[in-house]
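Late entry, evening session. Most of the bench is empty. Finally got around to the prediction I had been postponing all week. Sequence below, unchanged from the version circulated by S.P.
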Amino acid sequence: MVAGVRYDYHNEFGSYVTPRVHFKYNFTQLSALRLSAGRGWRTARIFAENPKIFPSNRIIVAPSNLKPEDAWNYGLSYTRKFRLFKRDASFNADVSRTNFVNQVVVDLEDIHTIRFYNLSGTSFANSISLEINFILIEHFDVRLAYKFNDVKTTYSGTLREKPLSPRDRALVNSRVQNT
């Protein structure tokens, strides 16, 4: 187990204390469980982080009193190494949740306006990912992965799915190893 705490002082927003804890338990040499929890914060840079929405000719409403984003996150991960087709393989499953205390909301609901404002309500992100890696034939690795995201934010008093955040992602990747 590793636990820590970080203290930051921001010249505009004051002090932030961010605790974090990580725990790892090996069931065997081939399997491990990891748990983590902690707080994180950052100041959003709305123009640098959202360049694709600005050429839309919409009116931009960005107040000067945007607070830093602040969230608590929790995660659980399980890893297992094994043999598949008489070759090395691994499986990984991750589950995580982020609860936002504050978030800079990018509201695209009005077709004429882009609004930035501080979160007033609930915002969270849940994620589940599964991954398997194996050697199909000698010198040829394969990775199959799937990720499910459930991301919701309160927009003008209504909890909705966050736009432009894909709910499902899948990956198929192969690699030829140099000999």
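Two things to note before I forget:
Helices lie at 46-49.
The CA atoms of residues 123 and 131 lie 27 Å apart.
Will write this up properly tomorrow.
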